[in-house]
Design brief:
Number of helices: 10
Number of strands: 7
Strand order of the largest sheet: 1-7-6-2-3
Shape: globular
Radius of gyration: 18 Å
Largest sheet: 5 strands, parallel
Distance between the termini: 47 Å
Structural class: alpha/beta
Order of helices and strands: HHHEHHEHHEEHEHEHE
CATH class: Alpha Beta
Strand content: 15-25%
Length: 229
């Protein structure tokens, strides 16, 4: 009965692939098979000293870091992130979190994690958009890794100016005093997975880490959906 109802709904409201807009079947998960096979997946999760980790050398101490996908302008990943960020296609975050979670479990490099924290949006931006595009990514990682997603501990206190045309130094300067921790005792002695959607220069993640590192005996790992090339 459920299958018949699903097929009937699909007849009038067909599901479309968020990357190419083609109609997808009930047996395809979020993306059509063609787009899924075309995803530019990195091999960073299992590799110590990968590009994400190297980008933080000499800046902040992290335990491990990874990104799931490479980002190319006008490519499939740009379309997915745009749909997730501006078109409320939050199922994309769930899909990417499931994919990365499976890889993290296999790698064994993230086995000592205690919790997950999202890079937060400013409350005004959150109210305007209606959701943090990273949250569903965090929810699926939380289920896969069997660790809690912690909210309202890392807080964005002010809005930053556009980061688009800034280099790493300017971005980090622009991020000064934007984040704060609400309860350092709660985070004490924890290994935290800090997550975001896209890593470019890493300035936003670095600014978050600098705040988190003021907590006693804290360890930080990083995971993002996408890394720019």
């Amino acid at each position: 009965m459920k299958t018949s109802l699903t097929n009937l709904i699909s007849l009038f409201y067909p599901r479309k692939c968020p990357a190419c807009a083609k109609i997808i079947s009930n047996y395809e998960e979020i993306l059509c098979l063609s787009c899924r096979l075309d995803l530019p997946i990195t091999d960073y999760t299992e590799i110590k000293g990968n590009k994400v980790e190297k980008s933080f050398y000499g800046r902040i101490p992290i335990e491990a870091a990874t990104s799931l996908l490479y980002f190319n302008k006008r490519g499939i990943v740009q379309k997915l992130i745009h749909q997730l960020k501006y078109r409320k296609q939050q199922q994309i975050g769930l899909f990417l979190g499931n994919c990365l979670g499976d890889k993290m479990i296999v790698s064994k490099r993230f086995d000592t994690l205690n919790c997950i924290i999202c890079v937060p949006l400013h409350p005004k931006k959150l109210k305007k958009r209606g959701y943090n595009q990273v949250r569903t990514f965090g929810e699926s990682l939380s289920k896969k890794l069997n660790i809690p997603l912690i909210e309202n501990q890392l807080i964005r206190t002010s809005k930053s100016n556009t980061q688009t045309f800034k280099n790493r130094f300017d971005r980090l300067k622009n991020m000064e005093e934007i984040f704060k921790i609400s309860d350092r005792d709660f985070l004490k002695n924890k290994h935290i997975l800090l997550i975001d959607d896209v890593i470019t220069t890493g300035a936003t993640l670095e600014a978050c880490c600098l705040q988190l590192m003021e907590t006693e005996n804290i360890k930080i790992s990083i995971a993002t959906m996408v890394i720019t090339q």
